[in-house]
């Protein structure tokens, strides 16, 4: 019950292709874990299966002590909804709702789910937009924003539901290099606030800087994991070294 | 083409235009929701529903509208046993034919709109805890209609002109009045007047949809 996320022997295949081969790891409360590795190593699939965007073929996912999947068999529909509702996700391509303003994007889910009063929702969306530095963009449509601004809106939108865990799927991969900084600053601030996070990323410097732990995935398995000092300083495996071009 | 003559025939012709507009409104108001329901059926995971929707679209798009109108007005009552219960006045029967025909086209238009929506929209909605129904209502519908709008405008304009097919089932409408006047008065003027009235109707529609497109630009 002490782990926030517990993943055991996760297996997933697309047809004959095995994308996850017995992936096992845990994430502690308040920990920031960066997942790195070559394209096609199963990083995104692993992340997406945590929020039930992919269904795995075997293994277990336990979130805050509750089993989303236990030995390959999934919990009931309502239980899955309950478990995944504690997790927010930020996508590579933002996936903002183009027909809603920035404020509308933040408030759609809380207003639809009706768990709190309208004034609380309005107040929090205002706070969160200031937090990501976009208070002046509340009434603008996403089409008028830069990529970096869109991703910051997406982070604020994920935070609207006060998640205990935040997952990032290559949050800066679709951005121009000069726009990644503003997004990484927001994520760094969340790490300092001890939000539990898993970040799939290609930004090695950022991973080294912000993460408490690095997981290096290769060919559907966790090849190596450890502190940033271990992984970047003295990796055990030759393939980790070659990936990091050390 | 004297002005006096035009004024004289304008009254009855506008009377005919009323039937045209009435048919147009009935068909638009009923076929758009029908099309939407058929789209959802076609996308349904329940196979029989999807099959019914696809067959319906295939039949309505694959046969002439004129054949369908003749079928509903004159064919239905000929069906053995149940035929006698299917006798409708010709305007009602024709409206039914138009609604079913246009419903199929609108279904295909909406399906196209649905296909254009990125799967990331569904994923983001799911992760935010929205149910399938909530996602459809709050996220997908608005985007689907936005994409479909130009094609819906196009179909609506086609419908204005297709109402002239009422001529073939002898329901008095705009074209019917024009033809009567041409035969009676030995002049081409009524056809020109009818053309102008059709143009006016399509102009109003064009402007209406332009405004809608501007309103739903999301900028």
TrEMBL record, chain B:
Keywords: Amino-acid transport, Cell membrane, Membrane, Transmembrane, Transmembrane helix, Transport. The chain crosses the membrane at residues 20-42, 63-82, 188-209. InterPro entries: AA_ABC_transptr_permease_3TM (IPR010065), ArtM/GltK/GlnP/TcyL/YhdX-like (IPR043429), MetI-like (IPR000515), MetI-like_sf (IPR035906). Residues 17-209 form the ABC transmembrane type-1 domain. PROSITE patterns: ABC_TM1. One of its GO terms (cellular component) is ATP-binding cassette (ABC) transporter complex. Its main location: membrane. GO terms for biological process: amino acid transport. GO terms for molecular function: transmembrane transporter activity. It is found in: Cell membrane. Belongs to the binding-protein-dependent transport system permease family. This is Amino acid ABC transporter permease. It comes from Paenibacillus agri.
């Amino acid at each position: 019950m002490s782990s926030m996320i517990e993943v055991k022997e996760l297996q997933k295949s697309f047809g004959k292709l095995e994308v996850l081969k017995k992936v096992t790891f845990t994430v502690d409360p308040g920990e920031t874990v960066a997942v790195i590795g070559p394209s096609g190593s199963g990083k995104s699939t692993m992340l997406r299966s945590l929020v039930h965007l992919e269904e795995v073929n075997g293994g277990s996912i336990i979130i805050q002590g509750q089993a989303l999947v236990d030995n390959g068999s999934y919990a009931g529909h309502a239980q899955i909804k309950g478990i995944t509702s504690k997790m927010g996700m930020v996508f590579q391509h933002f996936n903002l709702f183009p027909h809603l303003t920035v404020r509308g994007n933040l408030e759609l889910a809380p207003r639809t789910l009706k768990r709190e009063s309208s004034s609380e929702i309005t107040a929090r969306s205002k706070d969160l937009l200031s937090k990501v530095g976009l208070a002046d963009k509340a009434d603008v449509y996403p089409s008028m924003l830069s990529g970096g601004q869109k991703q910051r809106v997406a982070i604020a939108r994920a935070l609207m539901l006060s998640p205990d865990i935040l997952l990032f799927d290559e949050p800066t991969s679709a951005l121009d290099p000069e726009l990644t900084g503003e997004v990484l600053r927001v994520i760094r601030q969340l790490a300092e606030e001890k939000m539990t996070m898993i970040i799939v990323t290609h930004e090695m410097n950022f991973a080294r800087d912000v993460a408490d732990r690095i997981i290096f995935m290769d060919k559907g398995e966790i090849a190596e994991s450890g502190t940033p000092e271990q992984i970047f300083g003295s990796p055990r495996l030759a393939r980790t070294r070659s990936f990091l071009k050390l | 083409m004297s002005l006096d003559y035009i004024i004289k025939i304008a009254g009855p012709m506008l009377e005919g235009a009323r039937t045209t507009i009435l048919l147009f409104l009935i068909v638009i108001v009923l076929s758009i929701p029908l099309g939407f329901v058929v789209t959802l059926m076609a996308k349904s995971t329940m196979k029989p529903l999807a099959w019914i929707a696809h067959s319906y679209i295939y039949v309505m798009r694959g046969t002439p509208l004129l054949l369908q109108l003749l079928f509903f007005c004159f064919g239905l009552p000929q069906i053995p046993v149940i035929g006698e219960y299917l006798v409708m006045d010709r305007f009602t029967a024709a409206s039914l034919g138009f609604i079913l025909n246009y419903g199929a086209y609108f279904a295909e238009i909406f399906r196209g709109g649905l296909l254009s929506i990125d799967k990331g929209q569904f994923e983001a909605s799911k992760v935010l805890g929205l149910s399938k129904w909530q996602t459809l209502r709050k996220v997908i519908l608005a985007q689907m209609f936005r994409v479909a709008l130009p094609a819906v405008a196009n179909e609506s304009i086609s419908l204005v002109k297709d109402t002239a097919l009422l001529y073939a089932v002898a329901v008095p409408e705009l074209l019917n009045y024009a033809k009567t006047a041409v035969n009676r008065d030995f002049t081409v003027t009524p056809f020109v007047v009818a053309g102008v009235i059709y143009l006016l109707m399509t102009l109003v529609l064009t402007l209406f949809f332009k405004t809608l497109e501007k309103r739903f630009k999301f900028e």
